[in-house]
Amino acid sequence: MSVNDITDVSANASFTCNKDGEVYYAVLNANATIPTANEIRTGVAGAVTSDHKTVEKDVSATAAINGLTASTAYTLYAVLVDDQSNASEVTSKNFTTLATGINVTDRDVIKIYPNPVTTWLQISMNKADGKGNFSLYSISGSKLSEGRIENGNALLNMEEYPSGIYILRITDGAFVQEYKVIKK
Question: In principle, which of 9, 52, 92, 153 could form an S-S bond with 24, CB 3.0–4.6 Å?
Answer without folding.
Answer: 52
